[in-house]
Amino acid sequence: MAMASCISKGKDYNYKILMEELVGKMISLPVKLWLTAIEVGREDPRRPIHALKVGVSLTLVSFLYLLEPLFVTVGQDAMWAVITVVVVLEFTAGATLCKGLNRGFGTLCAASLAFFIEIMSQNSGRVFHASFIGISVFLVGFLATYVRFVPYIKKNYDYGVVIFLLTFNLITVSSFRVHNVLHLTRDRLSTIAIGCGICLFMSLFILPNWSGEDLHNSTVQKLELLARSIEACVNKYFQDEDKEVIAREDKSSKDQIYMGYRAVLDSKSSDEALALFASWEPRHSRHCYSFPWQQYVKLGAVLRRFGCTAVALHGCLESEIKTPLSVRSLFRDPCSRVASEVCKVLDELARSIRSRRHCSPNMLSDHLHEALQDLNSAIKSQPRLFLGSKNARRTANALVDWRSDKNTSSTVALSSAKSDISSLLEGRGKRAPDTPKGLSERKSLRPTLSKIAITSLEFSEALPFAAFASLLVEMVARLELVIEEVEELSRAANFKFSQEDEAVIEMEYCEEKKPSATAKFFQSNVVSQTAE
Amino acid sequence: MAMASCISKGKDYNYKILMEELVGKMISLPVKLWLTAIEVGREDPRRPIHALKVGVSLTLVSFLYLLEPLFVTVGQDAMWAVITVVVVLEFTAGATLCKGLNRGFGTLCAASLAFFIEIMSQNSGRVFHASFIGISVFLVGFLATYVRFVPYIKKNYDYGVVIFLLTFNLITVSSFRVHNVLHLTRDRLSTIAIGCGICLFMSLFILPNWSGEDLHNSTVQKLELLARSIEACVNKYFQDEDKEVIAREDKSSKDQIYMGYRAVLDSKSSDEALALFASWEPRHSRHCYSFPWQQYVKLGAVLRRFGCTAVALHGCLESEIKTPLSVRSLFRDPCSRVASEVCKVLDELARSIRSRRHCSPNMLSDHLHEALQDLNSAIKSQPRLFLGSKNARRTANALVDWRSDKNTSSTVALSSAKSDISSLLEGRGKRAPDTPKGLSERKSLRPTLSKIAITSLEFSEALPFAAFASLLVEMVARLELVIEEVEELSRAANFKFSQEDEAVIEMEYCEEKKPSATAKFFQSNVVSQTAE
């Protein structure tokens, strides 16, 4: 009996625990929900505002039913206004416009076609009428669904076709029972117009969210994320000494690296959707007729490819194929400087896009080149790690004849690199914005820059580091493409010039006739090089 | 007058040209449309079939209006069946199920809530009733819209919430005018059920398209595309000799490279959508309760990161930072062999996934290792390009102490690499599928393999080539991750074993007790190495 009471006590105890757990969960659930709700709102404060807008719109549209005078006017068809508001009112103005106009146009087309079919089969017998409707429903259903597979339609007008199909079916089919189709169509159209009107008013005039702004901001953010990612990546590569510090910082820096390039790599579909919606928005047309949203998509594609270099750089860390610490620490400063210059350029590009002004690529490229040059000299200043000039001469036959002698070569290579860059930048400053000649010149000049940087890295033993360094240089080459695309964007979108830029352009215009000092320097170098 | 007639003749001529152009366009437009239609159908023959299915479903649902006995039963509410068919019937069975069940569940919830509110405000005055409805419409609209921003809801139940909001509003608002809400709700639910039934029947039983199949096939295709991309990339890198051939082949090979990795990099959103829809499909549950569709998404993520290496490899071609031809041609065969082995592994993985059987990683890794070893020996056999052993010894202090002597080190490194791989594969064969210990062992072993391959590439001058080669080795290391993920998939999805595999597993089970020949070899090597 003692045992039985013990068991029952145990049971009671179990029940108590279970009950406590259940109560605990019941209490924690609302807390959890509340925290999630706050988190969602904090991430983007426009969300609760949008939710409020939807609530208000629905209440407004429900007045069509609730208020006697309105109900008398629109009657049962008020339902269509409710459906329209629920389905059309989207987060951004562009998306609402896109859906609203698609819906309106789809409905109009469908109503016309349905009306045409109704007229065609008006004076026929009951059975013929029914089979005629059946056949036309089948045919239109087949064709409309098939048309939705065409990529162009799918991308731009998918929703419109769905609404066309929906409205056509509803009108055609109900025309068999209702005799005044014109009346039916007119009522339905007017209520849909009321719904669309409320949606457009709410999304265009009451605290509007613009898809274009989102696309603009996300592009800026992507540039900044990439900068942070590369920064963290290079820092981590050269930071192996303090094992304890790493253990603490490892996770956060890894997250930062990963988050950075992942956000860029995964941005394709959201970019395209935003650009599509933005193209419906009536904004930014002050400067140009159609704002070049597709240019943002293109920039996104270039950034994705740039991001791939960041992934490869991260691969150098992750795969643990590392250069000995001693070698790495020798090059920490110059490498970090190249990386920080890359980051600076990315940040500067982000800033220029954010403030919608032209970036100044001259300044950017100059610093970048100086950093590359530093890396170059750092490598040259560590003779222990490279071949002597004797050895170099022995293997020179197997190589291209970029340089004839080790000692002269370094100065020639550097000065020609310098003048290459100068001419590159001059060409950029001078050329008219859209001359294809200027573009092709730059295309042929860019590789030269990278080539010089790469061939001057003459390690013998620090090979894994060579891969890291060449990825860094590759990154600089890719960065040029990013700069080019940002320039293209700022030209296409008529970004404003800063005052300094305007001064520079004016100066360059004045000096265009006489050859510049750097060009002279370049020419003399070429002469001395060929003389040798 | 002659001039006037001349002018009028000229005008006539212009009109004639214009008319001809117009007629030409009028004739070419249908031809163009027809060609587009044929192209769309040829790309995926399931598309016209799906369009036919939609046409048939719509015709079926229109019978609710057209046939007298059916119309008498369901009446005006037949409209809801039409709306349901248009909106719910999707291309794949999973998408239809997802939408249909979301719609059904959303409607049920909304109807219950609306009914509850109706009961609450039943016996109140007219004005109170109206304001009660208005407030509840506002609150539910606000909350439902806000809930849609929660990522989990957005991903899985977005459509359900929209339908909930729609139905709730329609029922609540119309309850103000219609007094028998229960009747109204029941009729509406029954017609929606008819619509959903037709959709589910059409998509599940008449020539169904499975999202799961699509995901499966697209994964296979991605592996194959990557293989072709890498193949084309490496071929192009070593193909500079015949300039004429390049000019002809350049565009097509570039397209192939680009198409390959681009398809992989851009696959995220479609993969996730397919996996989501596939998770609703009632298929493949013969083997396991829930088919691991998320594993395909994970594999896709690993493939995207693998694809980034392909992009970086392509970067070596595109940036024109190239090694001199003489150096490149020396290593064409071993590099091509590594690349072709990588491609073979990718193709083998694709084949094994396609036929839903376990892949045999042993065989794959062995060949891959042989190819890496070949590259290694090729590099060692070109002393002209590397430091002599004297030089190596001089710089050895700055390097890690992986090897003590040049001559012995190569054999030790190779044999230990060999035994590393053997033990890696043994460990893989032996270990239970889910032991975390086995996983961690492999994680620590993989870098060793790559480390050895990298450090044996001791060039002095062929640095740009070093970057190319190290990317190739990096690719092999990443490939291991892909193989791992495919194995994980085949385990999770209960893929069948081929007969050879079963024999191998049995043998390994028998030999598990006694140490293998390679293990003995490895042990003796370690002993000799430490003795030195």
TrEMBL record, chains A, B:
It is a multi-pass membrane protein. Its main location: membrane. It is found in: Membrane. The keyword Transmembrane helix applies. It comes from the Eukaryota. GO terms for cellular component: membrane. Pfam families: ALMT. The chain crosses the membrane at residues 51-72, 78-98, 127-147, 159-177, 189-207. One of its GO terms (biological process) is malate transport. Keywords: Ion channel, Ion transport, Membrane, Transmembrane, Transmembrane helix, Transport. Belongs to the aromatic acid exporter (TC 2.A.85) family. This is Aluminum-activated malate transporter 12 isoform X2. It comes from Canna indica (Indian-shot).
